[in-house]
Design goal:
Blueprint (H helix, E strand, L loop, with lengths): L1 H5 L4 E5 L4 H10 L1 H9 L2 E5 H7 L7 E2 L14
Keywords: Signal
């Protein structure tokens, strides 16, 4: 079971009233956060997308060096 849990994202951030770009900028400005995001899979989604499309929809924006297109939480 431990190996299966290693595949799951460790940090999911749900945003209300802010953009993913703002969160990325804040992370880039803080070396400790940038270092953590390089080591821990993380993604952010807006609450509206989560409510409308559900948690498995491609609404999660990868954070840190993994940046890229929105995806499902299992693809982070």
């Amino acid at each position: 079971m431990g190996a299966a849990l290693a595949l799951l994202p460790r940090l999911l951030v749900v945003l209300a009233g802010t953009a993913v770009a703002d969160l990325r900028l804040t992370a880039e400005e803080n070396p400790a956060v940038a270092e953590m995001l390089a080591a821990v899979p993380a993604g952010a989604a807006r609450i509206q997308g989560l409510v409308q499309r559900g948690p498995s929809a491609p609404i999660w924006h990868p954070l840190g060096a993994r940046g890229g297109r929105p995806c499902g939480w299992g693809e982070l």
